[in-house]
Amino acid sequence: MLDERKATILRAVVTEYIETAQPVGSGHVASSAEVNVSSATVRNDMAALEAEGYLAQPHTSAGRIPTEKGYRFFVDQLGGPGKLGVNESQQVRTFFSRTHGEMEQMLSDTSRLLSSLTHYAAVVVGPQHEVATIKSVQLVGLSPRLVLVVLVLSSGAIEKHSIELAADADDLIVNAAAVRLSTLITGQTLASASSIDSHSLDLGESVDVAVILRAALTVLGGEHRHDDQVFIGGTSDMIASFDAVRTVSEILRILEQQLVVVSLLEDVLGRGLSVAIGRETGNEALADCSIVVAPYVVDGETAGSIGVLGPTRMHYDQALSAVAVVANRLGRTLSEG
Amino acid sequence: MLDERKATILRAVVTEYIETAQPVGSGHVASSAEVNVSSATVRNDMAALEAEGYLAQPHTSAGRIPTEKGYRFFVDQLGGPGKLGVNESQQVRTFFSRTHGEMEQMLSDTSRLLSSLTHYAAVVVGPQHEVATIKSVQLVGLSPRLVLVVLVLSSGAIEKHSIELAADADDLIVNAAAVRLSTLITGQTLASASSIDSHSLDLGESVDVAVILRAALTVLGGEHRHDDQVFIGGTSDMIASFDAVRTVSEILRILEQQLVVVSLLEDVLGRGLSVAIGRETGNEALADCSIVVAPYVVDGETAGSIGVLGPTRMHYDQALSAVAVVANRLGRTLSEG
DNA sequence: ACTGGCACTCTCGGGCTTCGACTGCTTACC
DNA sequence: GGTAAGCAGTCGAAGCCCGAGAGTGCCAGT
Prior knowledge:
The structure is a homodimer. By secondary structure, the first copy, chain A, is an alpha+beta fold. Chain A has 3 domains: 4-77, Winged helix-like DNA-binding domain superfamily/Winged helix DNA-binding domain (Arc Repressor Mutant, subunit A, Orthogonal Bundle), CATH 1.10.10; 86-128 and 228-336, GAF domain (Beta-Lactamase), CATH 3.30.450.40; 130-221, Heat-inducible transcription repressor hrca homolog, domain 3 (Enolase-like, domain 1, 2-Layer Sandwich), CATH 3.30.390. The first copy, chain A, has 13 helices and 10 strands. The first copy, chain A, has helices at residues 4-20, 26-30, 39-51, 68-77, 86-98, 103-118, 171-185, 190-194, 207-221, 235-239, 245-256, 258-270, 316-336; strands at 55-56, 65-66, 121-125, 134-143, 146-153, 158-164, 230-233, 275-277, 289-298, 301-311. In chain A, the strands form 3 sheets. The first copy, chain A, has a 5-stranded antiparallel sheet with strand order 7-3-10-9-8, sandwiched between helices. In chain A, helix 1 (4-20) packs across helix 3, helix 5 packs parallel to helix 13 and helix 6 (103-118) runs antiparallel to helix 13. The relative contact order of chain A is 0.13. The model of chain A has no long low-confidence stretch (mean pLDDT 88). Chain A binds chain B through residues 100-102, 104, 135-136, 138, 140, 142-143, 146, 148, 150, 152, 154, 156, 158, 160-162, 164, 233-237, 239-240, 242-246, 248-250, 252-253, 256, 337, and chain B through 100-102, 135-136, 138, 140, 142-143, 146, 148, 150, 152, 154, 156, 158, 160-164, 233-237, 239-240, 242-246, 248-250, 252-253, 256, 337. Chain A binds a DNA duplex through residues 23, 25-27, 37-41, 43-44, 46-47, 57-63.
């Protein structure tokens, strides 16, 4: 629908606007290396591009800036992610050669890596607990009526939930419950563990033990969806791309709500996209932002996702490749562990 | 050193400047309720106040704005924290009546509470692990060579560290080590546990067990200082008080480094202050910011600290009382648990 | 189908003026 | 001596004008 020349011109406008943040005039486009026609011709094409919704003019006699549709075309025609610069890929290599163990630490560091690669805000969403199996369960009595349920998952993640009892429970009872619980749910996923019918098990148990067991199972079924681990880094880098404090404040408000951020990424991935531009993000407050996402795969399963949040005029090629490379390496590194 | 009238005038200037963010002229001060002299007299006193370093002029023929020394006087003469508004204290009451269990969740919610009370950024530093005793230790083998050490502390906090072994270890060995480790360090503090001489214990143990034990103890001594829990909330609220993106970016850069934030609070508390104004914070990037801090006390011991970060022209009285009240209630609530 | 040319538009920045909010000083009063 | 009143002076902010510059759209010519 866009002939070759128009596409080239659009590409040139987007590229230069990303670089300078200034409206781009026909003269600049004409003098760019890829375009070999005069500025008058460019003008005609730009007028057409504007009519078709790819470009917009802040006012007459200003240059053009890309619309969301313009960015979308630009991103689509980029094809896949490009290659990283030598410095960047070096940085990634050394990062992943050094890192190991401690998943939480690693994800947090990954978000720092990604933001330092792109100079935008980086979001790393940890593996879903749903797919992980329970490696170990422990009940720890903190005070007579307060018991902590500590789960270690196969991913190395830890979940804890406290349960409050109506009556005091002594250590013997807690331990008995712990043993029973352990045989019941070790090896299962969180989902299957929490779906255990708590009434099918009170036969043969002491009442006190049964109470604790039931409470523990209930709490597992709770909102563990909530404590997905999210790591956000580089917000201070990103906001330097904006010039209105107002905008910045709104963006930060979004980032503070980690739940929102997670569902934002998942939503974008769910639509089969790797880039969401402006309103495509589905969030009005992010009208001036774009998101680049990629899932990462651990042991053949999609485990979590990573993403970058920057201005709509972001360096898409760099962001795409950084996200792709980091997602890939992260998945591989986690698979080994 | 400041006579009564000058103090009143200074107070009036600071109050109005905090409200309006505009330089305050002698006319405004003279028309304020507390001042009963003419603007000419005010002018004379303001000139004196400027000479003494309490006020500054952006340029001739502009009003005065407070210097750090001016704010300092203002804060000092406030005396202790005032009282909270009815809405605010209601908010605090309902918050603490609802909250319970899960320390981590609670601290995180507290930071949200504090920022919503003050509209500035709130920092909550969790209890030092140093004072907590170890309630339970567990070793979980994630893979043949990777073992996770999971500690539950009396505070309800959880520490985990992974250790990598040079050789495969089967579950029996890991379990043996777990039992031994548990008898060794349960009931101790982290500090005393990590100071156990790892060479005094390899008598009578199998070599494999000893290896794991030693690795576990070493890892305890590590940098657990680092994972102090820090919860920061309300940054988006706070930045609305500033008008240069540049400043905002620098402040966020500080807040991203949680270690820095913690030592910032501790440093201020260490100097016996509850308010640090501008450069008093000891951080050049926070020249336009002030910090209000208070420690909170759990079971008679200073456990952690909470604080608020806002612009130098912050509402000190509100911030002081919010911080004081929340610190108090938080300590009491944690003591019960 | 391009291109060169031209008239037109609109922003941006400098220079100018006016306005207003201040101050400092001087003088008068109690 | 402390307070008030008045007055001249200062300086930024806002408004205005104008010219420069960067763009555009359109038309006519190749």
